[in-house]
Amino acid sequence: MEIKKAIKLAKDNNQAAFKFLLDTYWNDVYGFQLKRTENENDAEDITIQTFSRAFDKIHTFDDKYVFKTWLITISKNIHVDLIRKHKSSIRSKIQTKDDDIVYDIPDESPTPEDKIIREQNLAKLLKNIKKLKPHYQEVINLRYFQEMSYKDISEELKEPMNNVKVKLLRAKKLLAQILTNPNA
C-alpha cells in the first residue's frame, strides 16, 4: 500500500490503513521522541499519543504536506505540552463536554495478529505476554482475558479511547513478533 492511498483510506476509517500508517511511521516518531526525552517509556507514551491524535484528526491532514512531517509536528507539540504541564505550578483537572462523546467502534473482525494470538496455547501465550512492557501486558489482559470493551478499558486506565486503541494495536504487533520469532 502506498502512503497517499493509505491516508485516503484512513480518512474513510479503514483500520488496515491505520495499521499500515502506524507500522510505517512508528519508528520515525518513536526515534524522534527518544532523542528528545532520552527515556524509552516517555518516548513510547508520547508516540502512542501522537498516533492517537493523528488518527483522530486524520481528516484535517492536507495532502500537499508530507505525512511524516505532520506526525513529527504533532509529536513535538505533545512533548512541549507535557513539559509545560510539568512546569506548571497550578494543577487542575478540567472536565470537558467531550467526556461524554459516544465513539463508533469500527470492524473488530480478527486481524492476522489476533489469529496468531488465538492459535497459541494459553501457558505459552501467558509466558510470552510477560515479555511485553507492563502497560502492554495490562491492555492485552483487559481486552482479551477480561474481555473489556475499548470504552471500558479507556475508563479503567483513565486514558482517551484512541490511546487505548493505539496501545492495543502496538501490543498485538509486538506480541505477534514474539510469537512468530520466539528466539529473537
Automatic annotation (TrEMBL):
InterPro entries linked to this entry: RNA_pol_sigma-70-like, RNA_pol_sigma-70_dom, RNA_pol_sigma70_r2, RNA_pol_sigma70_r4_t2, RNA_pol_sigma_r2, RNA_pol_sigma_r3/r4-like, WH-like_DNA-bd_sf
Keyword field contains Transcription regulation: yes
GO terms, molecular function: DNA binding; sigma factor activity
Transmembrane segments annotated in the record for this chain: none
Domain RNA polymerase sigma-70 region residues, every copy: 23-87
Domain named RNA polymerase sigma factor 70 region 4 type: residues: 125-175
Pfam families listed in its UniProt record: Sigma70_r2 (PF04542), Sigma70_r4_2 (PF08281)
Highest taxon in the source lineage: Bacteria
Alphabetical GO biological process terms: DNA-templated transcription initiation
Keyword annotations from UniProtKB, A to Z: Sigma factor, Transcription, Transcription regulation
Family label: Belongs to the sigma-70 factor family. ECF subfamily.
UniProt xrefs under NCBIfam families: sigma70-ECF
The name this protein goes by in its record: RNA polymerase sigma-70 factor (ECF subfamily)
Protein species of origin: Winogradskyella wandonensis
